[in-house]
Design goal:
Radius of gyration of chain A: 22 Å
Strand order of the largest sheet of chain A: 6-7-5-4-8-9-10
Helix content of chain A: 40-55%
Mean pLDDT of chain A: 90
Distance between the termini of chain A: 69 Å
Shape of chain A: globular
Oligomer: homodimer
Largest interface: A-B, 71 and 70 residues
Number of helices of chain A: 9
Chain lengths: ~230, ~230
DNA sequence: CTGGCTTTGTGAACGTGTGCACGAGTGCCT
DNA sequence: AGGCACTCGTGCACACGTTCACAAAGCCAG
C-alpha cells in the first residue's frame, strides 16, 4: 500500500454524486446507523452498488471488506474531499423573487453556505431585509466579497442583467458562480460556473411527455398519423 | 406506423441542449437574424460546432449546406420535438418560500408552462394568493390535475414532505415531476423525475474551490490510511 | 486455527458522449 | 456554365461513464 496514493482527480460524475451520498449518510448517522454497505447506500441513493463502491474508492479505501463502510468516517472523508470542513459564504446578486426565496430559505446556512450578503442594482430594493440580511447596492459588492472572503456568487437576476452580474462578481474576486439566469455566461476559464435553468428542466420533461403521448395524443381524436404542417 | 417515427430516439445529452439552442434561436429571431451557422450557434451556446450539427441532425436534415440553418424553421422543429407546440400546465406542491417564488416568477407561463395551481398541506396557507393563483389544499390535487389536464408536477416542499407529495402527484395522474427537495424520490418506473438540488450544486462548486486552494494548502498530517483497529 | 460467509475494490467489457476530419451539397461570382 | 468558397451531415476514433464479475480481505463460528 502506498502511503498516499494519487487520490486527486475525481471524475465529474462522481463529484456530482458525493453530495447525495453525504446527505444520506448524515441522515443515517442521525438515525443511529453506524455502518452501511455499498448496496444499502446504493439503494438509498437510487444508484448501482458498483457505482457507489467505485465512487467511494476515489476517496481512498475507507471500507471494510465483509462489513461495509463506517458512516461517521465516510461522512468525514466526503466532507473533506468536497471542501466542506469549513463554511463557504455566498453572495446573492439580485433581490427579486428568486433572490428573496434563496435568502429566505434557511437551508443554505445549515449546509455550510451562509448568505454573506444580497445585492441589487435597484435602489428601491436596497435597505429592505430578507432572511435576516439587508439588501445592499451592487456597488458594495467588491467590498462585501473582500471583507467576508466570499468565493461563491449566486446570480438570481433577470436574464438581461446576468452577464453584468457575472462580470461584477468576477471583478470583485469571486471564483465560482451558480447561475439561475437563462443565459450562457462568458467568464474567464478559471471561473467555475454551474447553471440551474428551470425552463430547461421543464422542457426536458416536456420532451418525455410528448414522447409518451407520441403515438396517441388525446387531444387529437380521429387524427391518424402525424399532424400535417401548414 | 409511419416510418418517420424511426428517426426518434434522441440522446439524453442532446435533449438537454435543445432547450438552450431554442432559447438562443428565439433571441436571434427577435434580433432579426433569419439564418445561422452551426458555428455561430455553437459560440452563443458555448459548445462545439460539431456537437451542434450532430445534435440538430437528430431532428432531421434541416440545415442548408453552404448556408446554415433557417432560424425560424429550426425554432419550429425544436419546439415540435420538445413537445412545445402547446402549453403544459404545471401544478406546484408546496407554498413555502420556493413555491411562492416559483409562482411569482412569471417565466413559467411565458415559456409554455402556466401554473395551473398551487397546493399546500398547511390549512393556514390555503386561500392566500400567489402570482395570481390561489393556494388550495392538497386534497384538491386530484381534481385540479384532472380538470386542468396537468401532466407535470413541481415539488417545492421541505424534504420530509417530498415523498408524500410525489405519491400524491402520481396518484393524481401526473407523469413527470420536477423535484426541488433534497431527497431521492421513489416513484413508478414510468414517471419521469428530474431533480434540482441547490445544495448539491453549491457543494460541487465547493469541491472545485477546495481543489483550487488545495494545491497550496496541502497541510494534512497523517493522511495515509485509516487507523488499523478501531 | 480453519472454513465459510460477506462485502469491498477493481480489471475488463460495454455503452454513451465528444470532437475531428472530410465528403457532399449549395449558392455566389466570374 | 463552371469553378470556388462555404457549411452541413456523418464516419471514426477517442474519452468518459457505467456495470459486471470476481479475487482479495476481513469477520465469525466452532
Amino acid at each position: 500500500m502506498a502511503p498516499d496514493r494519487n487520490r486527486r482527480r475525481i471524475p465529474d460524475a462522481t463529484v456530482s454524486r458525493l453530495p447525495v451520498y453525504l446527505r444520506i449518510l448524515g441522515e443515517q448517522a442521525d438515525l443511529g446507523v453506524d455502518s452501511i454497505s455499498s448496496e444499502g447506500l446504493a439503494e438509498l441513493a437510487g444508484v448501482n452498488a458498483a457505482k457507489v463502491r467505485k465512487d467511494l474508492s476515489y476517496l481512498g479505501s475507507y471500507g471494510t471488506r465483509g462489513v461495509g463502510y463506517d458512516v461517521g468516517y465516510l461522512v468525514y472523508q466526503i466532507r473533506r474531499e468536497l471542501g466542506l470542513t469549513h463554511d463557504w459564504p455566498v453572495v446573492i446578486v439580485g433581490a427579486g423573487n428568486l433572490g428573496q426565496a434563496l435568502a429566505g430559505y434557511g437551508g443554505f446556512g445549515e449546509r455550510g453556505f451562509p448568505v454573506a450578503g444580497i445585492v441589487d442594482i435597484d435602489e428601491s430594493k436596497v435597505g429592505s431585509v430578507l432572511g435576516g440580511t439587508r439588501v445592499r447596492h451592487i456597488d458594495e459588492l467588491p467590498q462585501l466579497v473582500q471583507t467576508k472572503r466570499v468565493n461563491i456568487g449566486v446570480i438570481a437576476t433577470p436574464a438581461v442583467a446576468a452577464q453584468d452580474a457575472a462580470d461584477r462578481l468576477v471583478k470583485a474576486g469571486v471564483t465560482s458562480i451558480l447561475n439561475f439566469a437563462p443565459v450562457v455566461l462568458s467568464v474567464p476559464r478559471a471561473i467555475e460556473v454551474r447553471k440551474v435553468d428551470l425552463a430547461v428542466e421543464l422542457q426536458i420533461l416536456s420532451y418525455h411527455e410528448q414522447r409518451k403521448a407520441g403515438g396517441a395524443i388525446h387531444a387529437v381524436p380521429g387524427a391518424n398519423g402525424r399532424p400535417v404542417s401548414a
